[in-house]
Specification:
354 residues; alpha+beta; Aminopeptidase; 2 domains; 8-stranded mixed sheet; 5-stranded antiparallel sheet
Length: 354
């Protein structure tokens, strides 16, 4: 199959988060005919594929998630000009497409290569199956570098920002809305925090010559019992994003300081940041292989999971980043082909000499 045909094949197999079984089975069946260095190892709906061993070169892993967010699409997966439309076309079945192409193409770089297809990336940190894969597959902990093929417009995006989600709960007292003075409106108690959030400016966090922006946003709100009842409870979801120089512990302290004791604060999802590792020789080689730019990864990605285990990792992928999670998501067919050329150039550069 061509790259476009492979990506269409991937997009035709629906895989919203939590429903990756069909795609995992299809990928497993497709790679079963390939010449591999060992058996495919399956963990839940995730696969570890040992492509090549004994090359004499470094052992690198390419990682991509099978799941996509639930988005709306006006038509089935298709190609219109340079655009290939489909759920996950950019995020990140474009990356999965390159992984499969490296497995099936005659190109054979002189590196030890492992492919990791995993489930549930688009949900809570604790449910992401890459955590289980890394905990149970001991060989992966010994790789020299992992590349997460997240959509990045063929840019090399180093490190990643951390992310905290917390619930801020405001307590009040109910009353009839005709006599509000008999109650204590929990929604009004949030006005101080909401005003501070509205005034917050992004805070720069510079590491290794790259700059992340620390930001905090209210993203969800829940409260009230009925239209004619003064609410005794109001909740805000706060999402705090922070750079690699900030630990999870410090990020929690920063968010608690912002809330200033005005609400009960419960941390419900904690994802650490990851360092950029700009001077790593394998990462430097990728930077010199035709990538469009080298920049920080402002969002969170699974490079942080690798970093927690001391495994160097970076983000590089052909997907159109601005199309991630969009209605009628699409990616560029030409950008896909260019991403393949960059990856092949990099793998040839880091491979062992003949």
């Amino acid at each position: 199959m061509s790259l476009a045909e492979t990506l269409l094949w991937l997009c035709h197999i629906q895989s919203p988060i939590g429903e990756e079984q069909a795609l995992c089975a299809a990928v497993e069946a497709r790679i079963s005919t390939a010449a591999l260095a060992g058996r495919v190892r399956r963990y839940g709906d995730s696969l570890v594929v040992p492509v090549r061993r004994g090359s004499g070169g470094p052992h690198v892993a390419l990682a991509g998630h099978l799941d996509v967010v639930r988005t709306e699409h006006d038509a089935p997966p298709r190609i219109e000009g340079d655009r290939l439309y489909g759920a996950g076309a950019a995020d990140m079945k474009s990356g999965l497409c390159l992984m499969l192409s490296l497995l099936e193409a005659p190109f054979a770089p002189r590196v030890d290569l492992t492919l990791v297809f995993y489930a549930r990336e688009e949900g809570p940190y604790a449910e992401n199956e890459l955590g289980r894969v890394l905990a149970e597959d001991s060989e992966l902990t010994r790789i020299a570098l992992a590349i997460a093929l997240e959509p990045s417009d063929n840019k090399l995006q180093l490190g990643c920002g951390g992310s905290l989600h917390a619930t801020a709960r405001f307590q009040g007292r109910t009353a009839h809305s005709a006599r509000p003075w008999q109650g204590d409106n929990a929604i009004y108690k949030a006005q101080g925090l909401l005003a501070r959030l509205a005034r917050l400016e992004p805070q720069a966090d510079s590491v290794d010559g790259l700059t992340w922006q620390a930001v905090t946003s209210a993203t969800l709100a829940h409260g009230g019992r009925a239209r004619n009842v003064i609410p005794d409870r109001f909740e805000l979801n706060l999402n705090h994003r922070f750079g690699p120089s900030t630990s999870l512990t410090q990020a929690e302290a920063n968010l608690a300081q912002l809330v200033a004791g005005e609400a009960e604060l419960e941390f419900v999802d904690r994802s650490p940041a990851a360092p950029p590792l700009r001077s790593n020789p394998l990462i430097s080689a990728l930077a010199e292989s035709g990538v469009h730019a080298v920049e920080p990864k402002q969002a969170w990605t699974d490079v942080a999971r690798f970093a927690e285990l001391g495994i160097p990792a970076a983000n590089f992928g052909p997907g159109v980043q601005a199309q991630a999670h969009q209605k009628n998501e699409w990616t560029s067919v030409e950008q896909l082909a260019e991403g393949q050329r960059i990856l092949e150039r990099w793998l040839s550069k880091i491979g062992s000499p003949t």
